[in-house]
Specification:
single chain, 316 residues, alpha/beta, Arginase, Chain A, two-stranded antiparallel ribbon, 10 helices, 10 strands, 15% strand, binds manganese (II) ion
Length: 316
Protein backbone atom coordinates (compact mmCIF):
# COMPACT_ATOMS: atom_id res chain seq x y z
CA UNK A 1 0.00 0.00 0.00
CA UNK A 2 1.29 3.45 -0.84
CA UNK A 3 1.97 5.65 2.13
CA UNK A 4 0.98 9.22 1.50
CA UNK A 5 3.70 10.72 3.65
CA UNK A 6 7.28 11.93 3.20
CA UNK A 7 10.35 9.77 2.73
CA UNK A 8 12.26 9.89 6.03
CA UNK A 9 15.87 10.88 6.60
CA UNK A 10 16.57 7.33 7.68
CA UNK A 11 15.39 5.99 4.32
CA UNK A 12 17.25 8.59 2.23
CA UNK A 13 19.37 11.63 3.24
CA UNK A 14 17.46 14.87 2.86
CA UNK A 15 19.76 16.25 0.15
CA UNK A 16 19.13 13.21 -2.05
CA UNK A 17 16.25 12.32 -4.33
CA UNK A 18 14.04 14.16 -6.80
CA UNK A 19 12.51 17.21 -5.15
CA UNK A 20 8.84 17.01 -4.32
CA UNK A 21 7.34 19.14 -1.57
CA UNK A 22 8.69 17.83 1.74
CA UNK A 23 9.66 14.61 -0.11
CA UNK A 24 6.03 13.55 -0.40
CA UNK A 25 5.17 11.01 -3.09
CA UNK A 26 4.49 12.63 -6.47
CA UNK A 27 1.12 11.08 -7.26
CA UNK A 28 -2.10 12.31 -8.81
CA UNK A 29 -4.48 10.48 -6.53
CA UNK A 30 -7.40 12.09 -4.76
CA UNK A 31 -8.57 9.10 -2.71
CA UNK A 32 -7.19 8.43 0.76
CA UNK A 33 -5.54 11.81 1.17
CA UNK A 34 -6.40 14.98 3.05
CA UNK A 35 -4.31 17.51 1.14
CA UNK A 36 -2.41 17.86 -2.12
CA UNK A 37 0.42 20.30 -2.72
CA UNK A 38 0.00 21.70 -6.23
CA UNK A 39 2.46 23.90 -8.15
CA UNK A 40 1.04 26.67 -10.33
CA UNK A 41 4.01 28.06 -12.28
CA UNK A 42 2.41 31.22 -13.65
CA UNK A 43 3.81 34.76 -13.76
CA UNK A 44 1.87 36.37 -16.61
CA UNK A 45 -0.13 38.46 -14.15
CA UNK A 46 2.77 40.49 -12.77
CA UNK A 47 3.14 44.28 -12.82
CA UNK A 48 6.86 44.61 -11.98
CA UNK A 49 9.41 41.78 -11.75
CA UNK A 50 8.65 38.43 -13.35
CA UNK A 51 9.95 34.96 -12.61
CA UNK A 52 7.38 33.66 -10.11
CA UNK A 53 6.85 30.78 -12.55
CA UNK A 54 9.98 29.32 -10.94
CA UNK A 55 8.47 29.65 -7.45
CA UNK A 56 7.05 26.12 -7.10
CA UNK A 57 10.39 24.61 -8.10
CA UNK A 58 12.32 26.80 -5.64
CA UNK A 59 9.95 26.03 -2.76
CA UNK A 60 10.09 22.30 -3.43
CA UNK A 61 13.91 22.37 -3.64
CA UNK A 62 14.34 23.71 -0.10
CA UNK A 63 11.41 21.84 1.44
CA UNK A 64 13.34 18.60 1.92
CA UNK A 65 14.68 19.97 5.20
CA UNK A 66 11.22 20.13 6.81
CA UNK A 67 10.63 17.52 9.49
CA UNK A 68 7.20 16.07 10.27
CA UNK A 69 6.78 17.27 13.87
CA UNK A 70 5.78 20.91 14.42
CA UNK A 71 6.65 21.96 18.00
CA UNK A 72 5.00 25.36 17.56
CA UNK A 73 1.58 23.77 17.08
CA UNK A 74 2.46 20.56 18.93
CA UNK A 75 1.43 18.31 16.07
CA UNK A 76 2.98 15.54 14.02
CA UNK A 77 1.51 16.26 10.62
CA UNK A 78 1.48 12.71 9.27
CA UNK A 79 0.23 11.16 12.50
CA UNK A 80 -3.15 12.59 11.54
CA UNK A 81 -3.30 13.14 7.83
CA UNK A 82 -2.03 12.05 4.46
CA UNK A 83 -1.04 13.99 1.39
CA UNK A 84 0.77 14.02 -1.92
CA UNK A 85 2.68 16.37 -4.16
CA UNK A 86 0.30 16.51 -7.12
CA UNK A 87 2.94 18.16 -9.33
CA UNK A 88 2.34 21.30 -11.36
CA UNK A 89 -0.83 22.32 -13.14
CA UNK A 90 -0.56 23.23 -16.82
CA UNK A 91 -0.60 26.92 -17.64
CA UNK A 92 -0.70 28.64 -21.04
CA UNK A 93 2.21 31.12 -21.07
CA UNK A 94 1.07 34.60 -22.06
CA UNK A 95 -2.67 33.83 -21.92
CA UNK A 96 -4.25 34.52 -18.56
CA UNK A 97 -7.88 33.57 -19.41
CA UNK A 98 -6.77 30.23 -20.85
CA UNK A 99 -4.56 29.67 -17.82
CA UNK A 100 -7.44 30.48 -15.47
CA UNK A 101 -9.56 27.82 -17.18
CA UNK A 102 -6.75 25.28 -16.85
CA UNK A 103 -6.17 26.04 -13.17
CA UNK A 104 -9.87 25.78 -12.34
CA UNK A 105 -10.19 22.49 -14.24
CA UNK A 106 -6.92 21.18 -12.81
CA UNK A 107 -8.06 21.66 -9.21
CA UNK A 108 -11.58 20.29 -9.77
CA UNK A 109 -10.81 16.58 -9.19
CA UNK A 110 -9.15 17.42 -5.87
CA UNK A 111 -11.84 19.73 -4.59
CA UNK A 112 -14.62 17.37 -5.67
CA UNK A 113 -12.97 14.56 -3.68
CA UNK A 114 -12.81 16.66 -0.51
CA UNK A 115 -9.04 17.12 -0.75
CA UNK A 116 -7.62 20.45 0.43
CA UNK A 117 -5.44 22.00 -2.29
CA UNK A 118 -2.32 23.79 -1.07
CA UNK A 119 -0.99 25.76 -4.03
CA UNK A 120 2.56 26.97 -4.62
CA UNK A 121 2.60 30.10 -6.80
CA UNK A 122 3.14 31.62 -9.14
CA UNK A 123 2.05 35.22 -9.04
CA UNK A 124 -1.01 36.18 -7.01
CA UNK A 125 -3.36 36.17 -10.01
CA UNK A 126 -3.70 32.39 -9.54
CA UNK A 127 -5.89 32.85 -6.48
CA UNK A 128 -8.93 33.75 -8.59
CA UNK A 129 -9.24 30.42 -10.46
CA UNK A 130 -8.42 28.61 -7.21
CA UNK A 131 -11.39 30.36 -5.61
CA UNK A 132 -13.60 29.55 -8.59
CA UNK A 133 -12.72 25.85 -8.26
CA UNK A 134 -13.36 25.85 -4.52
CA UNK A 135 -16.62 27.78 -4.67
CA UNK A 136 -18.03 25.47 -7.34
CA UNK A 137 -18.03 22.72 -4.70
CA UNK A 138 -18.16 24.55 -1.37
CA UNK A 139 -20.16 27.69 -2.18
CA UNK A 140 -18.80 31.13 -1.25
CA UNK A 141 -15.90 31.12 1.22
CA UNK A 142 -14.29 33.46 3.75
CA UNK A 143 -10.96 34.89 2.61
CA UNK A 144 -7.97 35.40 4.91
CA UNK A 145 -5.49 37.42 2.85
CA UNK A 146 -1.95 38.29 3.99
CA UNK A 147 -0.28 40.82 1.72
CA UNK A 148 1.35 44.24 1.43
CA UNK A 149 -1.32 45.04 -1.13
CA UNK A 150 -5.10 44.67 -1.16
CA UNK A 151 -5.14 43.41 -4.77
CA UNK A 152 -8.54 44.99 -5.36
CA UNK A 153 -7.69 47.27 -8.31
CA UNK A 154 -10.45 47.96 -10.79
CA UNK A 155 -8.40 47.10 -13.91
CA UNK A 156 -4.90 47.12 -15.44
CA UNK A 157 -4.49 48.85 -18.82
CA UNK A 158 -8.16 48.24 -19.40
CA UNK A 159 -7.87 44.51 -18.66
CA UNK A 160 -9.64 42.75 -15.80
CA UNK A 161 -7.05 40.17 -14.76
CA UNK A 162 -3.57 40.58 -13.25
CA UNK A 163 -2.02 40.06 -9.82
CA UNK A 164 -3.50 43.27 -8.42
CA UNK A 165 -7.23 42.85 -9.14
CA UNK A 166 -8.32 39.31 -8.33
CA UNK A 167 -10.00 39.99 -5.01
CA UNK A 168 -12.23 42.66 -6.55
CA UNK A 169 -13.11 40.12 -9.26
CA UNK A 170 -13.75 37.52 -6.55
CA UNK A 171 -16.20 39.88 -4.82
CA UNK A 172 -17.92 40.69 -8.13
CA UNK A 173 -18.26 36.98 -8.89
CA UNK A 174 -19.67 36.40 -5.38
CA UNK A 175 -16.96 33.90 -4.54
CA UNK A 176 -16.36 35.45 -1.11
CA UNK A 177 -18.46 35.95 2.01
CA UNK A 178 -17.65 39.62 2.47
CA UNK A 179 -18.71 39.84 6.12
CA UNK A 180 -16.25 37.10 7.05
CA UNK A 181 -13.28 38.10 4.88
CA UNK A 182 -10.20 39.97 6.03
CA UNK A 183 -7.07 41.47 4.50
CA UNK A 184 -4.03 41.75 6.75
CA UNK A 185 -0.64 43.48 6.60
CA UNK A 186 -1.13 46.20 4.00
CA UNK A 187 1.74 48.68 3.87
CA UNK A 188 4.06 50.57 1.54
CA UNK A 189 3.45 53.52 -0.71
CA UNK A 190 0.04 53.95 -2.35
CA UNK A 191 -1.50 55.57 -5.43
CA UNK A 192 -4.07 57.44 -3.33
CA UNK A 193 -5.04 57.83 0.32
CA UNK A 194 -8.31 55.94 -0.10
CA UNK A 195 -7.00 52.67 -1.60
CA UNK A 196 -7.69 50.71 1.59
CA UNK A 197 -11.07 52.42 1.99
CA UNK A 198 -11.99 51.14 -1.46
CA UNK A 199 -11.23 47.62 -0.32
CA UNK A 200 -13.43 48.18 2.74
CA UNK A 201 -16.25 49.43 0.52
CA UNK A 202 -16.13 46.07 -1.27
CA UNK A 203 -16.82 44.49 2.11
CA UNK A 204 -13.37 43.50 3.32
CA UNK A 205 -12.11 44.10 6.80
CA UNK A 206 -8.64 45.61 6.30
CA UNK A 207 -5.93 45.48 8.97
CA UNK A 208 -3.00 47.53 7.66
CA UNK A 209 0.48 46.91 9.08
CA UNK A 210 0.35 50.00 11.29
CA UNK A 211 -2.82 48.78 13.00
CA UNK A 212 -1.38 45.28 13.23
CA UNK A 213 1.61 46.76 15.12
CA UNK A 214 -0.71 48.64 17.48
CA UNK A 215 -2.88 45.60 18.17
CA UNK A 216 -0.09 43.04 18.53
CA UNK A 217 -0.02 39.64 16.88
CA UNK A 218 -2.18 37.64 19.34
CA UNK A 219 -4.96 40.24 19.16
CA UNK A 220 -4.79 40.28 15.35
CA UNK A 221 -5.04 36.49 15.21
CA UNK A 222 -8.02 36.57 17.57
CA UNK A 223 -9.64 39.30 15.47
CA UNK A 224 -9.23 37.19 12.32
CA UNK A 225 -10.72 34.12 14.01
CA UNK A 226 -13.71 36.12 15.22
CA UNK A 227 -14.23 37.67 11.79
CA UNK A 228 -14.07 34.35 9.95
CA UNK A 229 -16.06 32.31 12.50
CA UNK A 230 -17.01 28.84 11.32
CA UNK A 231 -17.13 29.67 7.61
CA UNK A 232 -15.30 27.61 5.04
CA UNK A 233 -12.05 29.49 4.59
CA UNK A 234 -9.41 30.07 1.92
CA UNK A 235 -6.06 31.39 3.14
CA UNK A 236 -3.80 33.23 0.70
CA UNK A 237 -0.30 34.27 1.71
CA UNK A 238 1.50 36.78 -0.53
CA UNK A 239 5.14 36.51 0.54
CA UNK A 240 5.56 40.28 0.03
CA UNK A 241 3.75 40.90 3.33
CA UNK A 242 7.11 39.87 4.79
CA UNK A 243 9.86 42.47 4.81
CA UNK A 244 12.37 42.29 1.92
CA UNK A 245 15.06 41.81 4.58
CA UNK A 246 13.52 38.37 5.17
CA UNK A 247 11.92 37.77 1.78
CA UNK A 248 13.83 39.58 -0.98
CA UNK A 249 12.83 37.06 -3.64
CA UNK A 250 9.50 38.53 -4.70
CA UNK A 251 8.00 40.58 -7.48
CA UNK A 252 6.67 43.71 -5.80
CA UNK A 253 8.63 44.21 -2.56
CA UNK A 254 7.52 46.75 0.08
CA UNK A 255 9.70 47.78 3.00
CA UNK A 256 8.37 47.68 6.56
CA UNK A 257 6.82 44.22 6.50
CA UNK A 258 6.60 41.33 8.94
CA UNK A 259 9.60 39.31 10.03
CA UNK A 260 9.55 35.64 9.13
CA UNK A 261 8.96 34.73 12.79
CA UNK A 262 5.96 37.08 12.93
CA UNK A 263 4.56 35.60 9.73
CA UNK A 264 4.78 32.09 11.15
CA UNK A 265 3.16 33.22 14.40
CA UNK A 266 0.25 34.86 12.56
CA UNK A 267 -0.40 31.75 10.48
CA UNK A 268 -0.31 29.56 13.59
CA UNK A 269 -2.87 31.92 15.08
CA UNK A 270 -5.43 30.71 12.51
CA UNK A 271 -5.65 27.36 14.35
CA UNK A 272 -9.12 25.85 14.29
CA UNK A 273 -10.62 27.67 11.30
CA UNK A 274 -12.54 25.60 8.77
CA UNK A 275 -9.99 25.51 5.94
CA UNK A 276 -10.83 24.45 2.39
CA UNK A 277 -7.76 25.75 0.54
CA UNK A 278 -4.46 27.58 0.82
CA UNK A 279 -1.81 29.19 -1.32
CA UNK A 280 1.60 30.82 -0.99
CA UNK A 281 2.30 33.18 -3.85
CA UNK A 282 4.86 35.59 -5.33
CA UNK A 283 8.07 33.71 -4.49
CA UNK A 284 10.56 34.81 -7.16
CA UNK A 285 13.80 32.82 -6.86
CA UNK A 286 15.85 34.97 -9.29
CA UNK A 287 15.84 37.78 -6.71
CA UNK A 288 16.30 35.50 -3.73
CA UNK A 289 19.39 35.36 -1.52
CA UNK A 290 20.54 32.06 -0.01
CA UNK A 291 17.05 30.65 -0.72
CA UNK A 292 15.62 32.51 2.27
CA UNK A 293 12.38 33.50 0.54
CA UNK A 294 11.80 30.01 -0.83
CA UNK A 295 12.57 28.55 2.60
CA UNK A 296 10.06 30.88 4.22
CA UNK A 297 7.49 29.95 1.56
CA UNK A 298 8.09 26.26 2.29
CA UNK A 299 7.70 26.90 6.02
CA UNK A 300 4.43 28.79 5.54
CA UNK A 301 3.12 25.80 3.57
CA UNK A 302 4.35 23.57 6.39
CA UNK A 303 2.29 25.60 8.89
CA UNK A 304 -0.74 25.20 6.61
CA UNK A 305 -0.28 21.43 6.61
CA UNK A 306 0.02 21.52 10.41
CA UNK A 307 -3.29 23.42 10.64
CA UNK A 308 -4.93 20.76 8.46
CA UNK A 309 -3.52 18.03 10.74
CA UNK A 310 -4.83 19.77 13.87
CA UNK A 311 -8.32 19.92 12.38
CA UNK A 312 -8.13 16.19 11.69
CA UNK A 313 -7.44 15.50 15.38
CA UNK A 314 -10.31 17.73 16.46
CA UNK A 315 -12.76 16.15 14.02
CA UNK A 316 -12.30 12.70 15.53
MN1 LIG B 1 -0.82 40.01 -3.70
MN1 LIG C 1 1.60 41.87 -2.66
Amino acid sequence: MTEYKPVTEIQLPKFAGIKTFMRLPHLQVAEGIDFAVVGIPWDGGTSYRTGQRMGPDAIRRVSGTLRPFNPGLDVGIFDHCAGVDWGDLTVVPGYIEDTYARIEAGLAPLVQSGVIPVALGGDHAISLPELRALVRVHGPVALVHFDSHTDTAEQYFGRPYYHGSMFRRAMEEQLLIADHSVQVGMHGTMHTRDAWEESKSLGFDVIPMQRLREMGLPAVAEHIRQRVGGQKTFVTFDIDVVDPAFAPGTGTPEVGGLSSAEAIELVRGLKGLNFVGFDVVEVLPDYDVAEITALLGANIVYEFLSLIALNKIDSR
